[in-house]
Write a structure and sequence with these properties.
By secondary structure, the chain is α+β, with helices and mostly antiparallel strands. The chain has seven helices and 26 strands. Bound molecules: ligand LQZAQKY5 and molybdate ion. Ligand LQZAQKY5 binds next to helix 3 and helix 6.
Length: 393
């Protein structure tokens, strides 16, 4: 059996980054940049006032009145340079007139006709934002591979980019298999259960910036499975749920091989998720996840998320993002598979403890978990206070 890391590497080796497209800035949240964003001008483009008030020459602030001459507004500056003992009305964001090097806020002045009185002392560049103080023309603001959060979208827009170059969303087809499954909202027979795998994986695909395509449920019938596999045409990745193991009615793997699929690995030394497999059907990468709902979600976190990040061209796509945590309760010794124990962490840096339910079919426990605690093969029992690696969920 191969290790989790070997499995992840084999998957990544079969994938290459997708092509790029552009998206309107307002719709770019969560997308991955395909090219750098570089400033084409200084920001701010000139020295500007940071407050509503009066632009002055600091050396004129000696307690005697100044003469107010004109106004500089945001969007329409005041072109004449400031002569000695003059002041110009300014609004927040307005260009500083040439010669001015300080703003006196309006709360600190009294105006009498065109005469300005203030007790403020000289303090050069007080309340002035210098040209280029945020960033300079030519400066790289965002690297390719960056995931756009609201602040980064705003920065790209501030740099004047209306259509942002991003990676195309990976199209991830999801196929569940098994006669026992009905879609949520349908009426199950006495021996049937709801398909939780497809909606759960769709949510995960969304969260990583992909486009999930549900192929529904294939019955335990070779023809139905064959048709379902064919319907994945056009996807960047097909994820199957169930039929990964050795059951008599699991046709998925057989049909995959009959259709010319090449198996790249089967069985991973991981718990839950041992039956996970990966292969290619023509050009289409196929990731086979085990049917047990917790196994499917955990293996998706371990294999599907890095695969999608590889398609998105993100740097360190294969890094899962482990954090260190201190145990709040003891942990049992581990078996011979790398194990992902469902746990809770009180807060981001707090102690972590394992949940009591670790069955790979118990979704309610998974939904309560906030972390997966990683246990290496044959890891010894640990006491409270010792450190473990956790993967935030
Ligand atoms: N004799 C053996 N039996 C099993 C082994 C084994 O090595 N030898 N492995 C076990 C492990 S580990 C797992 S995990 C499961 C995985 O089996 P499959 O991938 O073949 O999954 P199925 O048999 O199709 O289903 C298992 C279980 O999960 C439910 N399921 C399937 N799909 C969904 C879905 N989309 N939503 C909700 N629930 C789903 C299904 O009804 C079954 O209850 O095999 C063990 N057995
Ligand atoms: O790995 Mo199965 O995924 O242990 O239940």
């Amino acid at each position: 059996m191969i290790t989790v890391e070997e499995a992840r590497d084999l998957i990544a080796a079969s994938l290459s980054p997708l092509d790029a497209e552009t998206v309107a800035a307002a719709r770019a949240f969560g997308r991955t940049l395909s090219a750098a964003i570089t400033a084409t001008r200084d920001q701010p483009p000139s020295d500007v006032s940071a407050m509503d008030g009066y632009a002055v020459r600091s050396q004129d602030l000696d307690g005697t009145p100044l003469e107010v001459r004109g106004e500089s507004r945001a969007g329409t500056g005041h072109d004449a340079p400031l002569a000695p003992r003059q002041a110009v009305r300014v609004s927040t964001g307005a260009r500083m007139p040439a010669g001015a090097d300080q703003v006196v806020i309006q709360e600190n002045v009294t105006i009498d006709g065109t005469s300005l009185h203030t007790a403020d002392a000289a303090n050069p560049w007080r309340h002035v934002r210098k040209a280029g103080s945020d960033y300079r023309a030519g400066e790289q603001l965002l690297e390719p591979g960056t995931i756009l959060n609201p602040a980064k979208v705003s920065l790209a827009a501030a740099a004047g980019i209306g259509d942002i170059p991003v990676m195309r969303r990976p199209r991830v087809a999801i196929l569940s298999t098994g006669d026992e499954l009905v879609m949520p909202g349908e009426t199950p027979g006495p021996d049937q259960i709801f398909n939780s795998g497809t909606p759960g994986l769709s949510a995960l695909v969304f969260s990583v910036g992909g486009q999930p395509l549900s192929l529904g449920i294939a019955e335990d019938d070779p023809e139905d499975v064959r048709e379902a596999l064919a319907s994945a045409d056009g996807a960047d990745l097909l994820v199957t749920i169930g039929g990964a193991s050795v059951g008599d009615h699991d046709h998925l793997r057989r049909v995959f091989t009959e259709e010319g699929g090449t198996l790249i690995f089967e069985k991973v030394r991981v718990k839950p998720g041992k039956p996970a497999w990966f292969g290619k059907l023509g050009e289409l990468p196929v990731l086979g996840l085990p049917g047990n709902p917790v196994s499917a979600m955990v293996t998706a976190r371990l294999f599907l998320v890095p695969a999608m990040r590889t398609l998105l061209g993100q740097p360190s796509a294969l890094a899962l993002g482990f954090e260190q945590a201190v145990l709040g309760a003891p942990l049992e010794a581990n078996g011979d598979r790398e194990t992902y124990v469902r746990g809770v962490r009180d807060h981001q840096t707090g102690p972590v403890r394992a949940l009591s339910k670790q069955d790979s079919a118990h979704l309610a426990a998974l939904a309560n978990a906030t972390v997966l605690i990683r246990r290496l093969p044959d890891a010894p029992a640990l006491d409270a206070g010792q450190t473990v690696e956790v993967l935030p969920l």
